[in-house]
Every structure is written in structure tokens, then in C-alpha cells.
């Protein structure tokens, strides 16, 4: 999985947990911070402010 973040913060059992990005499933809620690689196709729920570098897309 070249180019995919190896770990991401995801809500599991009602709390934030760090998991391997490979186990993400549809409707998971993830958290990303400055400098993170977004590990999957995602829908943005909240941002303050937001800037995306699409260089690797």
C-alpha cells in the first residue's frame, strides 16, 4: 500500500483509537491533523481552517 498512511485515528467503540489504515471501512470517522496523509476516500465533516495539498493525487 504505497502512499497510504500506515496508522490513523478512528472512532471505535465510542472512543478514539489508533488503528491501521488498511482496516478502515465505509462510514468510519477518522481524524487528521496538519501533515497527515488522508488514508482513504473521505467526506469532510468539520474543518477550521482547511488547506489540502493535492500534489500526490
Automatic annotation (TrEMBL):
Keyword Magnesium: yes
Protein name (database record): P-type ATPase, A domain superfamily
Keyword Repeat on entry: no
Pfam families documented for this protein: E1-E2_ATPase
Top-level lineage group: Eukaryota
Record SUPFAM superfamilies: Calcium ATPase, transduction domain A (SSF81653)
Gene3D superfamilies recorded: Calcium-transporting ATPase, cytoplasmic transduction domain A (2.70.150.10)
Record keywords, A-Z: Magnesium
InterPro entries linked: ATPase_P-typ_transduc_dom_A_sf (IPR008250), ATPase_P-type_domA (IPR059000)
Domain P-type ATPase A, chain residue ranges per copy: 5-54
PANTHER family, A to Z: CALCIUM-TRANSPORTING ATPASE
